[in-house]
Amino acid sequence: MNHGNVNAKIAGGLLALKKRIDAAKVPPSKLDESINLATWNIREFGRKRRSEAAVHYIAEVLGQFDLVGVVELRNDLRDLGRVLQILGPHWRAVYSGMIPDYGGNWERVAYLYDSRAVTFNGLAAEAHTPRKKKGFEYLPSASFWRAPYLATFKSGSFDFVVLTTHIRWGSNESARHDELERLADWIEAKRQDEYAEDKDLIVMGDFNIPSKTSSLFKAITKHGLELPRALARLQHGSNLAKDKRYDQILHYPQFPVNFSNAGGVLDFFLGDAHIKELFDGEMTREAFTYQMSDHLPLWMQVRTDIEGFRLEQIVQTQATERP
User: SS3 helix, strand, coil % of the chain, rounded to 5?
Assistant: First the structure.
């Protein structure tokens, strides 16, 4: 992390932020043994230039993780570049093209990762709903407002696919429900594909799901996607009020031991009274969300050394095959 020669206010803000980060108890990752994975909706990141303080704070939060799926990255990438410069030369970004209409909201999805811990494995692609032939054209019957974005990564002996999405808010839950079901169907088809890049699939992002008991949660988990245990037991959400579970990390674990018991929400906000510890002047919560965000990062630790588990599977398989 290279914060450089910042002014006294930003330095004090970084110290206050570090205390909030420490309170989240994100465990350190270990090279070739574990990574810290997160999803974060950074509100309209790139629509309007962030302050110098906000760029440093966003970098400090991102730097707690090894791989982050970012949603609401907008068409202007200059603030992303400022953040990457602070994170340092080992950090990389893989991002989608922006969608230039009001449904797509000029948004991208990005993966930011520390190349010392995670390697990009080559595939980066948008997910699109199936098409049917109509005349001479192949057209979808419905669409994702913002195309989910998937990429392949490797860490230790663990190769995996991450899909990150930002589901529409829409005018009602019905439209959201339909899009979530389409996504669940697309993911299941991808997983069952004979030529799938990898069977280890992590699905995350902003699903605009209010709670685990919502019909929207049932829609995305209809084919067996599930919450890792560390996140299933969370008692609060990842919005600033902590009463909504819009953000999710879900998985079909090929190797269940991958998903550790460490996970949670990193609260960089604490409450309205603490805004002044980070920013000058009388800043409202609404203004704060356009500097930091209206979402908190949701994270979990993933074990990446699975060689021992693979060897145990081989032994068990051969033992059951003996006459």
Answer: 30, 30, 40
